[in-house]
Amino acid sequence: MSKIKRFKQFLVNVKNNITDYVKRLISRLGFGKTTKINLSKMNERVSAGLQSQLGYYSEYVTAQEIIKLLNQDKLSVALNGNKNGAYSKITKKVNDYRKIILSKDANIEDELVSQEQQGAKMGRVIYNDAIATSSDLIMLHFNVVLTGDSLKGENKADVVVEITKQNTKEVVDNIMASLKSYKGWSINLANNTLTSFFDNLGVKLDQKVYNQLKHLQSVRHDVWKFYMNDDFAGLKQSFGVKVANEAKPMFNVKYKIKAKPTAEQKQYVKNAHDVIQKNISNFFVAQFEKEYKKNKKAINKKILVLLGFDGSDDFYLAVKQKEKISVLSNRTSDKYKVLIEQIQKDFDLVITYNENAPSVVKIDFYDVNGVKLLSSNISIGQTGSVGQSRTNWWVDFKPFKGDAV
User: Rounded to 10 degrees, what is the CA torsion of 277, 280, 286, 287?
Assistant: First the structure.
């Protein structure tokens, strides 16, 4: 048998080994059938590392705009409790952080400009909400707090505007602004690993089930590593000496492929990866449905906090499409206020999964009368760690678009 034929047979064996493995695993977990639906594909904008930095940058720009407008009105304003040079300090922070981001990726200028535009628009909307709190603004003090600098971990707000009376220090209002900047109306409200997702919902996975899931994710990581890097070490680790010996003629001592596989050969490995991904998603659906049926009330309460629907923060979403920027806020959107009121009373989740889109699980929110409140998707993908998956909970806010300013 030629080397190419042996290599092709090796990949077939790998795929079959994985398929048999996940079939055994899933049968032990007792999964039920899945419902097929059509799903839209969700795309993330930038690399994970820069995404969080761009988020901080947008927050700084938002705070800068709020302070600028309050200064123009000659009102009492502070940054993180310090009244001295609030605008110059936030401007320096914006400029410094811009340089840091560009030093890491000089090609991200367009995305920075977009964040500046969206952040400034949210700043103007928050400013309007702040000055609407009183007709006697000259008597008020506005303290703009960057929670990334002082309060991160205590609440989900990104920028807080504390409004007090100057003479009595009486609190007039607190705008707890949770900021979101996107290019579409489907936005990511929660990021977790697969296991921490269940932890955040108060679900304790059985240790045996947890170990099975972790191993399944580890195998997927190794297969994907092989697919992306032509690296056999991961497969050797997952499938042991027998598979290694079968493939040894095709690899050197470092288990690197001597010649790059053909597109057809790599497709075998990708198919194996997709089989594992489908079963990880099946795991998620089965476990979620099982726990939700047992503890709906407790899990609903946790979901409200996880997605920011518990009313503890003010929601500001800036969406830029072409050259138009729209901002949706719970303070100005009547439809959003109705949603929060309804969803805090009670709701039911309907979970559906389409195996043709193996990385996405659809979750819709319904009121007690069966009326749909929200559409959402949870995407399940890889992290950089072996044995871990990430979950991103995307919620569709397009129905509220008409209330945006």
Answer: -150
State pTM to two decimals: 0.76
Provide DSSP, 217-258: HHHHHHHHHHHHH-B-HHHHHHHHHHHHHHHGGGB-TT-BBS
With a CB cutoff of 8 Å and minimum separation 6, the contacts of 190 are: 200, 306, 307, 391, 392, 393
8 Rama sector, left if φ>0, alpha if ψ -120 to 50, beta otherwise: alpha
The two tokens of residue 244 are 């290694």
Q: How far apart are CA 95 and CA 79, in angstroms?
A: 16
Amino acid type, 254: K
Both tokens assigned to 225:
């590593």
At 328 the three-state DSSP class reads strand
- Pairing mode, strands 186-193 and 159-165: unpaired
Taking the C-alpha atoms of residue 62 and residue 181, their distance in angstroms, rounded to an integer, is 11
Contact 154, 167 (CB under 8 A): no
Q: How far does CA 298 lie from the centroid of its chain?
A: 22
Tens digit of each residue's pLDDT, the chain (405 residues): 554 455 555 555 555 555 454 444 444 443 333 332 222 222 233 444 677 788 889 999 999 999 999 999 999 999 999 999 999 999 999 999 999 899 888 888 888 999 999 999 999 999 999 999 888 899 999 999 998 754 444 456 799 999 999 989 999 999 999 999 999 999 999 988 888 898 899 988 777 777 767 766 666 666 666 655 555 555 555 544 444 444 444 433 334 444 555 566 566 666 766 777 787 888 888 889 999 999 999 999 999 999 999 988 999 999 999 889 999 999 999 999 999 999 999 999 999 988 778 789 999 999 989 999 999 999 987 665 555 778 899 999 999 999 999
Helix runs in 159-232, H state only: 194-200, 207-229
**Distance (Å, whole) CA 74 – CA 46:** 39
Residue ranges covered by each domain of the chain: 3-44+187-310+331-403, 48-182
Residue-wise burial string across 263-281, b where 16 or more C-beta atoms lie within 10 A, e elsewhere: eebbebbebbbbbbbbbbb
Helical H segments across 253-352, by residue range: 263-294, 296-307, 334-345
**Residue among 29, 60, 63 at smallest CA distance from 289:** 29
